[in-house]
């Protein structure tokens, strides 16, 4: 697999622990991914640069709440706050809104995220009796596969579109969001990070 190749989501969901900063042992891969996080995602300069973006998204939330109050429409606070946070993150990483306050996409993505968290935290008898892992008696593995495959599929679509955009730009200067910075990083001659690493990193 080359650095810029994409595997099918259904083929890689079960090896997430081999790419996740949170699950990897302190080895060379972990150090490389940690460095990428420190320099491309959590760098002070990048966080300062996105301050105005975060303020914009909060103002959009306030405007939406005011409009709903004036029209007498009910407000699902949990949903609109999730949409605000999701769009703040997606604009920082991908320069795009992933959901709108009046769309179902926000709720669908929230259900995916909550579903993963629920399955990870659910007591699983197969964790205590490894012989039962293949049988998956509680269906935890099956449901987790579905959630991860859908999330990875969304990231796949975003990354493929960005790769096509970068290829059509014919070497012009890359954008300033996290995804472009990470893609530029893995294209370096001595880079030890692959596109598969980046995809899992975006799921952290």
Topology:
Elements lengths: L8 H4 L15 H14 L2 H6 L1 H21 L5 H18 L10 H17 L3 H4 L11 H29 L9 H9 L8 H7 L3
Helix pairs in contact: 4-5, 6-8
Please provide the ordered H/E string of secondary-structure elements: HHHHHHHHHH
Mean pLDDT: 83
Write the CATH homologous superfamily: Cytochrome P450
Terminal Cα separation, in Å? Answer: 22 Å
InterPro entries: Cyt_P450 (IPR001128), Cyt_P450_sf (IPR036396)
Protein name: Geraniol 8-hydroxylase
Organism: Quercus suber
Family: Belongs to the cytochrome P450 family.
Outline of the structure:
With 204 residues, the protein is mainly alpha-helical. It has 10 helices and no strands.
Tell me what you see in this structure.
This protein has 204 residues and is mainly α. It has a single domain, classed as Cytochrome P450 (Cytochrome p450, Orthogonal Bundle). The protein is built from ten helices and no strands. It has helices spanning 9-12, 28-41, 44-49, 51-71, 77-94, 105-121, 125-128, 140-168, 178-186, 195-201. α4 (51-71) runs antiparallel to α5 and α6 (105-121) packs across α8 (140-168). It is globular and about 60 Å long. Belongs to the cytochrome P450 family. Pfam families: p450. This is Geraniol 8-hydroxylase.
């Amino acid at each position: 697999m080359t650095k810029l190749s994409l595997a099918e989501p259904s083929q890689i969901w079960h090896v997430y622990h081999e790419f996740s900063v949170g699950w990897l042992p302190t080895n060379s891969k972990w150090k490389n991914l940690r460095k990428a996080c420190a320099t491309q995602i959590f760098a002070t300069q990048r966080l300062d640069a996105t301050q105005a973006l975060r303020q914009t998204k909060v103002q959009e939330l306030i405007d939406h709440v005011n409009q709903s109050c004036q029209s007498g429409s009910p407000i699902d606070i949990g949903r609109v706050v999730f949409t605000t946070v999701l769009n703040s993150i997606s604009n920082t990483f991908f320069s795009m809104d992933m959901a709108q306050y009046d769309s179902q996409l926000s709720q669908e993505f929230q259900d995916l995220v909550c579903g993963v968290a629920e399955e990870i935290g659910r007591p699983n008898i197969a964790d205590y009796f490894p012989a039962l892992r293949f049988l998956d008696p509680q269906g935890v593995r099956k449901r987790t596969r579905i959630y991860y495959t859908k999330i990875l599929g969304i990231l796949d679509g975003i990354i493929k579109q960005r790769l096509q955009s970068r290829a059509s730009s014919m070497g012009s200067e890359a954008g300033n969001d996290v995804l472009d910075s990470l893609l530029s990083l893995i294209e370096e001659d001595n880079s030890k990070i692959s596109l598969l690493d980046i995809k899992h990193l975006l799921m952290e």
